[in-house]
Amino acid sequence: MFSKYKGEIGLGLTALIWGSGFIGVSISLSGGLTPLQIMTIRFFIGTVLLGIIFFKEIKNNITKEAVKAGSMIGVFLFIAFVFQTIGMSYTTASKNAFLTAINVVIVPFIGFVLYKRPLDKYGIISSIIAILGIGILSLEADFSINFGDFLTIICAFGFAFHIFFTGEFVKKHNAIVLTVVQFSVATVLSLIVQILFNEIKIEAQMSSIIGVLYLGIFSTTVAFLLQTVCQKDVSE
Fold first, then answer.
1. Quick check: is 134 in a domain?
2. Is 81 among the domain residues?
3. What does the buried/exposed string (b/e) look like for 3-27 if buried means 16 or more CB atoms within 10 Å of the residue's CB?
4. How many domains would you assign to the chain?
5. What is the DSSP secondary structure assignment for residue 218, as one 8-state letter?
6. What are 44-60's pLDDT values in tens digits?
7. Which residues, including other chains, have CB under 8 Å from residue 225's CB and lie 6 or more apart?
8. pLDDT, tens digit, 9 for 90 and up, residues 151-176
9. Which terminal residue of the chain, N or C, has fewer Cβ atoms less than 10 Å from its own Cβ?
C-alpha cells in the first residue's frame, strides 16, 4: 500500500512542512530579517546542502535541457516567494497560508489554457469553494482586499505555474538536478534584488537566525526535494 501511494504520502508530508514554514517566516521577519534576506539565505542553504549531498548524481545527470527547465521553474519559484514573503509583512500568517494554498485550484486551469486539457467537475466545484473562502478571509467590509492579501494572491499564481511546470519537467529530467538549478536561480535573483534595495547588511536577532535556518533546511531543501520527486508519481 505504501508503494502504491508513496507519491501522495510524500506530498502530504511536504504540505505539513510547508505549513510550519509560515511560522518560520513570521519569526524571521519579527526578528529583524527582511523578506529578501530571508529568501536569499533559505535558497542559498538549499543549494549548498543539495549540492554537497547529491554532488555525484548532479554531475552525472546535469544537461543543458535540464538547466533550462530548472531555470524556468526557478523564476516562478522566485516570483512566488518574493510576493509571499513580502505579503507576510502586511497580513497574518493564517491568511497568507490560506491564500497561498489556492494555487492548487489554479493548476488545472493552467493545463486547460496552455494545453487544452479538460476540466472535471471537481476542479470547477473546488474553484468556486476556494473563491468563496478567499472572499470570507480577505475581503474587508467595503469588499476591498488589503495589500498583503493582494501580494499573496499573486504568489499563489507563481506557485501554480511552478507546480504545473515541475510536473511537466520532472518526467523528462532528473529531479535532483531540477531542484538544485531552481534553488540556484532563486538565490541569484533574490540576491540581485536585495542588492538593488540596499539590504545587504544583516541585523537580526537569534530567533530570526533560527527561523531562517529552519526554512532553509526543512521548508526549502527537504520540502521541495520531496515535492519534485513525488510529482513523478502524482498528477499536477
1. no
2. yes
3. eeeebeebbeebeebbeebbebbbb
4. 1
5. I
6. 999 999 999 999 999 99
7. 50, 175, 176, 179
8. 999 999 999 999 899 989 988 999 89
9. N
1 pLDDT above the threshold of 60: no
205 in a structural domain = yes
Is the alpha carbon torsion for 198, 37, 45, 222 positive or negative?
A: negative
Query: How far apart (Å, rounded) are the C-alpha atoms in residues 219 and 15?
Result: 10
Residue 92 main-chain phi, psi, to 5 deg: -85, 160
What whole-number distance in Å separates Cα of residue 78 and Cα of residue 85? 10
139 forms beta bridges with: 145
Say if residues 138 and 170 touch (Cβ distance below 8 Å): no
Range of the structural domain that residue 73 is part of: 6-90+157-230
Average pLDDT over residues 208-233: 88
3-state secondary structure 17-61: HHHHHHHHHHHHHHCCCCHHHHHHHHHHHHHHHHHHHCHHHHHHH
Phi, psi for 78 (deg, rounded to 5): -60, -45
At 121-131, the pLDDT tens digits run 777 787 778 77
In a domain, 36, yes or no: yes
CA dihedral 226, 232, 233, 236 (to 10 degrees): 90
